[in-house]
Amino acid sequence: MEQNQYDLLEVLQSIDPAELSYQDWVNVGMALKYEGYDVGIWEDWSRRDPGRFHTGECIRKWRSFSGSSSPVKGGTLVQLAREQGWTPPTDLGTPLGWDDAITEDGVVVDSNWVEGKEVEEPAHWDPVRDLTLYLETLFDSTENVGYVTQSFEKDGKYMPTKGSWDRTAGQLIEQLSHCNGDIGSVLGDYNPEVGAWIRFNPLDGNGVRNENVTDFRYALVESDSMEIEKQNAIIRELELPVACLVHSGKKSLHAIVRVDAADYGEYRKRVDYLYEVCEKNGLKIDKQNRNPSRLSRMPGVMRNGKKQFLVDVNIGKESWSQWQEWIEGINDDLPDPEPLEEVWDHLPDLAPALIHGVLRQGHKMLIAGPSKAGKSFLQIELAIAIAEGKKWLSWDCAQGRVLYVNLELDRASCLHRFKDVYQALGYPENNLKNIDVWNLRGRSVPMDKLAPKLIRRAAKKDYIAVIIDPIYKVLTGDENSADQMANFCNQFDKVCTELGTAVIYCHHHSKGAQGSKRSMDRASGSGVFARDPDALLDLIELETTEALMKQEENKAICEACRQYLDAHFKWEDDLSQDDLCSSAQMLRYCKDHLDRWQMAALNRILDAERARVAAMTAWRIEGTLREFPKFSPVNVWFGYPVHYIDRSGALGDIQPETDLPPWKKGAAKNKKNAEDRKEERRKSLEEAVENACFGEAPAVEEVANYLGISGRSVRDRVKEHGGYTIEDGVIQKK
Length: 734
Hints:
The chain is of the alpha+beta class.
């Protein structure tokens, strides 16, 4: 069932079925079925109108609701309830679409102050001319026109019959031109006490139902609950795109308004919007006129001594699109331009930094990278850093509340991941109250639907950051379409603006090598992704060497030995600073001072460390910033479950793979392999010199035996290394 902003059953109780047209009653049933309710709900509610309720009718109609490309949803119930005076418990202030009701901000005309505009009867009335101009304005000559001249009496009121629909506008105009003023000779005689009717949309010649309408071109706007002069004034001040304005011969004007809908679904949406604009501006609409096959009053006939005449044609805006743009332009809620001179000496304060040197509070940040980069872990690390007021990688963070929107992981996995990251970072859990996790796996909706729900839940929480992970779960439209992605990214702006919070989200890289691209061109899809946020952090993987990974393993073993010894001995004075950085020396010391059981426990720890280092990946973070100067690339290691800065600077010399042709990649790889082999020889020589003679300066033969190579090869390596010299057959540091 679609989640709605209001309790639909409560909304339903605020709707009186006796006040609805038949179509609105059907729409209620369709909305209830779409939202997942039982037919019994519709039937029980319909019983409140005993004059029209018939047992079994709801069930029969319910079975015919078989789905539609433009379904009637729960918002229809909210709209019907509003029209009958229901007020929602909270005005959510969410953005509007075609399906939404516009708010009081949609008022163009103050009906309390508008002056009436007189509607004058024509002094020299030509009925045939009126009807001919009406037909010429609304129809093409080949289109069938429906009209009614016959009526019947029911309950003291005259009602139109189905009428005729077998002639085209061209045929009618031709016959009217030769009727000598006798419209009845063309259309059939009508009752002058009742008048006559005409349909304003073309028909297919097979009937007069909605399904017989061939072009959803016009809608009828009629109001008979206010003075006709005021109706005329409001219609004109609203600049409705009126094709024909007809006096009904009684107490209302019939405005035939251009809606130019592509199909019935769009017609309904546009008519709802049109009627809502009219209502908000004081023009009380007869809502039974919604249907595209509806009858309107025919100009050129008499009605109880009064003329049904054509007041005007082609007034207001030229088209629906022009009128819609005008309405939205008037009510766009945009601020007025401000002269720079007036604010020059008292500029507003900049928003405080959320991530110092990277992102301000209330702004947007995108983290882009390929798979395996640990982007989710990076965002969890950021959430914890903000909650605790700690550093995130190399940047200080402001402290405050964070909402982490989890769209991908199941609830248990997400919560365990937070605990794992906390422990790996070594932070005390002093401010867990600052982190809220919204678990939406399996319940995510497109971002344009998620944004108002998020705003409603977060409105009173004072979050300084909202992290959405990942955005592909809420993506709407084609990610390669600039306009669709601009609309998608606008949802983040709404969250920032409504909540005053920063929004942080991640996105994946496009396929292929990324090293030769600019950071802002690596994110998949439209360039809007990279150019929309105020800060873009981009991760690219660095290809490590075997020697570099050996170096990291050496560090990890030394640190593990140190921590284990700290827990069992007072030992620090026994080893030099160089020894503390040598895994061989640390292991030798541990073997000399730990018993068999302690050594077994340490080996288990060391095995885990070796496995962790083997799984580590190296990354470079580059930034494109709108509010701060560009920072130097930041090199990090990702060792599950956290990222940490490369303090040694070893990653700084690695260049990412570029989009080279295959033969150049092969040459580069050969060169890289040669460099790796050279680095490996250098490291192995250093290890041999350090360990071949238990810390003493070793002879060439001792190093050769340690490495399993010849003495000549040892001398070549010493020369290649450059950091040693050989004196009297003994290798010494320079």
